Amino acid sequence: MNEFDDDRDGDDDVAIKEAPPQLKKPPLYKVILLNDDFTPMDFVIEILMDFFAKSEQDATDIMMCIHNEGTGLCGVYSRDVAETKVEVVNNYSREHQHPLMCAMEES
Ligand code: TYC
């Protein structure tokens, strides 16, 4: 016999514990560009301005950072938006015969 078996009033009470709210935020993703030896600098600046809404100055700074460091951050987005950016940028680069690589990583 335990406290749960002792239903003296006979109304078959059920103990209900409220679940804690599941409010975990969905992850965000960094979209990055990778350096290579062949893509022209002007093309990378154009990508950053046209697909990531950077000013010409910011695009130039980010491009130079990628050129010197190997990678650089274009923006942070939900998974769907990041996947689309990567696909659109990589398709655009291939259409223009440049090997520029755009990728995403969880942030
Ligand atoms: N390294 C390239 C060059 O010297 C320029 C470049 C910058 C390429 C950034 C890719 O993501 C890149 N022409």
Topology, element by element:
Layout: E1 29-34, H1 41-52, H2 56-69, E2 71-77, H3 79-95, E3 101-106
Antiparallel strand pairs: 1-2, 1-3
The site of L-tyrosinamide has 13 residues, from strand 1, helix 1 and helix 2.
Q: Would you mind describing this structure in some detail?
A:
- By secondary structure, this protein is α+β, with helices and mostly antiparallel strands.
- It has helices at residues 41-52, 56-69, 79-95, and strands at residues 29-34, 71-77, 101-106.
- Strands 2-1-3 form a 3-stranded antiparallel sheet.
- Helix 1 (41-52) crosses helix 2.
- The structure holds L-tyrosinamide.
- L-tyrosinamide binds at residues 33-37, 39-41, 44, 63, 66-67, 100.
Task: Summarize this structure as a short list of keywords or feature phrases.
single chain, 107 residues, alpha+beta, three-stranded antiparallel β-sheet, 3 helices, 3 strands, 40% helix, elongated, binds L-tyrosinamide
Number of strands: 3
Hetero groups: L-tyrosinamide
Strand content: 15-25%
Low-confidence stretches: none
Radius of gyration: 26 Å
Helix content: 40-55%
User: Order of strands in the sheet with the most strands?
Assistant: 2-1-3
The DSSP helix count reads 3
* Helix and strand element order: EHHEHE
How would you concisely characterize the structure shown here?
By secondary structure, the chain is an alpha+beta fold. It has helices at 41-52, 56-69, 79-95; strands at 29-34, 71-77, 101-106.
